[in-house]
Design brief:
With 127 residues, the protein is mainly alpha-helical. Helix content is 87%, strand content 0%. The protein contains 5 helices and no strands. Helix 2 packs across helix 3. The relative contact order is 0.16.
Length: 127
């Protein structure tokens, strides 16, 4: 597992294929849910969501920006997906449907725009 994490850290990329990009977006969303469930269980739901969001942004995405030269916009999309997952976990845990709905709305907007852009890019390449 450590080798997989090292490889993922060392190869940041914004996937060109719409399906793969969407799967990566949902993977980041799931990371937020999973880590918030663990940290939130110890420190509280909303505190856990904040810690997960900030730690992921600074440690993982910040590290990739500095050490691996990743793209800032891709890093921000990934960090936003993690934050949305964290908000969904904390919101569901604390019965705050508004937080869950807003996070899902943000994910839908990002996912729709990202997939549409990649489909358009792919269509231009094919013609």
């Amino acid at each position: 597992m450590i080798d997989l994490l090292r490889e993922m850290f060392g190869t940041p990329e914004a996937q060109a294929d719409p399906y793969v990009w969407g799967a990566a977006l949902l993977g980041h969303f799931s990371i937020g849910i999973f880590l918030t469930a663990i940290i939130g269980w110890i420190l509280g739901a909303w505190r856990g969501a904040l810690i997960v969001t900030l730690a992921y942004l600074v440690l993982w995405e910040g590290g990739q920006l500095i050490l691996e030269g990743s793209d800032l916009s891709d890093s921000l999309v990934d960090a936003t997906a993690v934050a949305c997952g964290a908000a969904v976990a904390a919101g569901a845990w604390r019965n705050c449907g508004v937080a869950v709905a807003l996070a899902m709305l943000v994910m839908t907007a990002i996912g729709g725009a990202g997939v549409a852009q990649r489909r358009d890019d792919k269509h231009r390449e094919d013609t």
